[in-house]
Amino acid sequence: MVIAFNRFAALLSLMLFLGASSHVFAGEYEGSWMLYDTHGGGFEATLSPDGSASGTHGDSMKHGTWKEVDGAVVISWKTGWTTRIVKQGDKYVKTSFKPGTTITDAPTDSSEATKKH
């Protein structure tokens, strides 16, 4: 009986750790980012804990959703564009994909991404 309880306790601890660690990882990407569009113009994107994304882009506001995919964040904008942010070394890199393409295609553009604190 004690062995069964210890196994249950160990399994429960592992499940709690894995759940907490995935939240910590997602927290790396949550928040505001400074990104650059295909013309070099800067805009801010905000990734909320609920998976929603918003961004200023010129005079308009962008909306979309985001999720973590293979160690990177992928933002799906309602405009049809997709943005991917991934950590490479000590920097973050943003790649964009125009409507009709996927993140496995060649990116439309690439630039540095900076997380605002």
Task: Describe this entry's structure for a reader.
By secondary structure, the protein is an alpha+beta fold. It has one helix spanning 2-29, and strands spanning 31-36, 42-47, 52-57, 60-69, 72-77, 82-88, 91-97, 109-116. The chain contains one helix and eight strands, in the order H-E-E-E-E-E-E-E-E. Strands 1-2-3-4-5-6-7-8 form an eight-stranded antiparallel barrel. The termini are far apart.
Note the main attributes of this structure.
alpha+beta; 8-stranded antiparallel beta barrel; 8 strands; 24% helix
Write the layout of secondary structure elements.
Blueprint: H1 2-29, E1 31-36, E2 42-47, E3 52-57, E4 60-69, E5 72-77, E6 82-88, E7 91-97, E8 109-116
Antiparallel strand pairs: 1-2, 1-8, 2-3, 3-4, 4-5, 5-6, 6-7, 7-8
Strand order of the largest sheet: 1-2-3-4-5-6-7-8
Class derived from helix and strand content: alpha+beta
| Order of helical and strand elements | HEEEEEEEE
Distance separating the two termini: 50 Å
User: What percent of residues adopt helix (DSSP H or I)?
Assistant: 10-25%
Shape: globular
Q: Uncertain runs with pLDDT below 50, 5 residues or more?
A: 11-25
Q: Please state roughly what percent of the residues sit in beta strands, choosing from under 5%, 5-15%, 15-25%, 25-35%, 35-45% or over 45%.
A: over 45%
The whole-number mean of residue pLDDT values reads 82
**Gyration radius over CA:** 18 Å
- The helix count comes to 1
Number of strands: 8
